[in-house]
């Protein structure tokens, strides 16, 4: 079967995932990696601060099973790094 062009939104729908949710989780993951490195913390040290295993931090940073990862764990990691994350909602243009 030949390859064809595929929209990301179509793939997301086929997989049953929310593309906006994944996008936000990717942004949080990127921030976690950037801040951890800037603070010169190892994955072991961050894991200890959060109360999870080093392998869990590695999974978060690698984006493994990001679609199944809860926002709660991502926000807990950011909190341990000294950050607060505010969630806002706004109406989409019609």
Rg computed from alpha carbons, rounded to a whole number of angstroms: 16 Å
Sheet/helix structural class: mainly alpha
Distance between termini?
38 Å
H/E element order: HHHHH
Q: How much strand?
A: under 5%
Shape: globular
Count of separate DSSP helical elements: 5
- Number of DSSP E strands: 0
Helix percentage range: 55-70%
Number of domains: 1
Determine the CATH topology: 434 Repressor (Amino-terminal Domain)
What low-confidence regions span 5 or more consecutive residues with pLDDT below 50?
Answer: none
The CATH C-level name is Mainly Alpha
CATH H level: which superfamily? lambda repressor-like DNA-binding domains
Q: CATH architecture, please?
A: Orthogonal Bundle
Mean of the pLDDT scores?
Answer: 87
Can you summarize the main beta sheet? none
Please, could you describe this protein's structure?
- The protein is mainly α.
- The protein has a single domain, classed as 434 Repressor (Amino-terminal Domain) (Orthogonal Bundle), CATH 1.10.260.
- The chain contains five helices and no strands.
- It has helices at residues 8-15, 19-38, 43-50, 54-62, 71-80.
- The longest helix is centred in the first third of the chain and has 20 residues, at 19-38.
Short description:
With 94 residues, this protein is an all-alpha fold. The chain is built from five helices and no strands. The N and C termini lie far apart (38 Å).
Provide key terms for this protein.
94 residues, mainly alpha, 434 Repressor (Amino-terminal Domain), 5 helices, globular
């Amino acid at each position: 079967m030949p390859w064809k062009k595929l929209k990301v939104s179509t793939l997301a729908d086929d997989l049953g995932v929310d593309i906006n949710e994944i996008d936000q989780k990717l942004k949080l993951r990127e921030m976690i990696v950037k801040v951890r490195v800037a603070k010169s913390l190892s994955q072991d040290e961050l894991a200890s601060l959060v109360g999870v295993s080093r392998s869990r931090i590695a999974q978060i940073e690698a984006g493994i099973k990001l679609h199944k990862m809860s926002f709660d764990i991502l926000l807990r990691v950011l909190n341990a790094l000294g950050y607060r994350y505010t969630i806002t909602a706004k109406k989409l243009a019609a």
